[in-house]
Amino acid sequence: MLMIIAHHFSVHGGFEFPKSLSDITINRLWTQFILMGGGLGNDIFVLISGYFLVKSRTMKISKVFDLWLRMFFYSVGIFAIFTLTGLEKFVLVEFVKSLLPPITGWWFASCYFLLYLLHPYINITLNSLTKSEYKRMLIIFGICWCIIPTFLKSNFQSSNLIWFMYLYSLAGYVRLWCEDLGGKKYFLCALLLTIANFAGAVVLDLLGLKFPFLGRPVIAAYYYGNQQLLTISIAFCLFVGFRSLRVKYSKLINTIASATFGVYLIHDNAFVRRFLWLKLFRNAEFFGSGYFVAYSLAAILLVYAACVMIEFLRMRVFAIICARK
To answer: H-helix or E-strand containing 59?
Structure first.
């Protein structure tokens, strides 16, 4: 989630990158580096879900309701706060959208919500496949929705939901058929691939000096996307690496982790996003500062901590309300 917040700091910060060699600064490179965190974070979240859900044969209605309630609470609540305080104008269309968050809200939350609704039926297929059938399916899907998008810049009839289903199936294969994939070597692989991925962005910067269209931030952002080969490779290596670790149960870690989805819903709400990065932290105004890297890290940590506290408060209030019924 910290990587995702860092990505949003970069992608929604209103940065404009000049096109001269002297403007390829540490701040520019840092902004491009943290941009990588979005695709990685998204892929890792879905891999984790696939790993733990692939053996499930039933859908928990309570989980569906909890996902919907969190989205509805933050969608309507944030809309009300921003319009009542005058930070945003009341627009009827936006109000109606706030009432339908699984359909009109956050893309990741909406896609994950639908994936959860479908996962028992996906599992029926995945659990019925032999190891060789499963492997062939992953290869076909990987070529169609990872290799082709990476090298030909075509989504090839893909979508966010289809990609999530592929990631879910990939992690399911690890759970069902891979008892031991090794361990710490995957962290080294993740590091090397991360360096390669970032190096690609730097090369595009340099090429952009001669061919301006290659230096546009959107180009580097594309190759950091969810479905890009290096992104999913890094995410998979981190996922497998952490799977091999034996970490003792930590109440603190699990308590903080319980707020993760709420952190996403709060800070990446459309109203909050504009307020945070353009008005409160004014990212672009500090782009030329000598302490920009430290400033960005502080902003990212502050946003994470504030959102965690808000989500803890929401959970506490909801727990009290439920206990009284």
So the answer is: none
Q: What is the pLDDT of residues 91-138, one digit of tens each?
A: 999 999 999 998 888 999 999 999 999 999 999 999 999 999 999 999
C-alpha to C-alpha distance for 60 and 149, rounded to whole angstroms = 34
Distance from the Cα of residue 316 to its chain's centroid: 26
Exposed, middle or buried: residue 107 (CB in 10 Å: 0-12, 13-18, 19+)? exposed
> How many C-beta atoms surround the C-beta of residue 103 within 10 A?
10
Neighbours of 89 (CB within 10 A): 8
Residues ≥6 apart with Cβ < 8 Å to 230: 150, 193, 196, 197, 200, 223
Helices 292-324 & 2-11, crossing angle to 10 degrees?
Answer: 120
Decide if 275 contacts 87 (C-beta within 8 A). Answer: yes
Report how far residue 155's alpha carbon sits from residue 147's, in angstroms, rounded to the nearest whole number: 10
pLDDT digits (tens, 9 = 90+) for 234-263: 999 999 999 888 888 899 999 999 999 999
Distance CA 48, CA 242 (A): 10
For the segment 154-210, what is each residue's pLDDT rounded down to a tens digit? 888 889 999 999 999 999 999 999 877 777 889 999 999 999 999 988 888 888 777
Q: How many residues are recorded in the chain?
A: 325
d(CA 289, CA 293): 9
Distance of CA 45 to the CA centre of its chain: 7
Q: Model-level pTM?
A: 0.93
**Cα–Cα distance, 67 to 260 (Å, whole number):** 12
- Cα distance between residue 198 and residue 192, in whole Å: 10
Buried b (16+ CB within 10 A) or exposed e, 258-276: ebbbbbbbbbbbbbbebbb
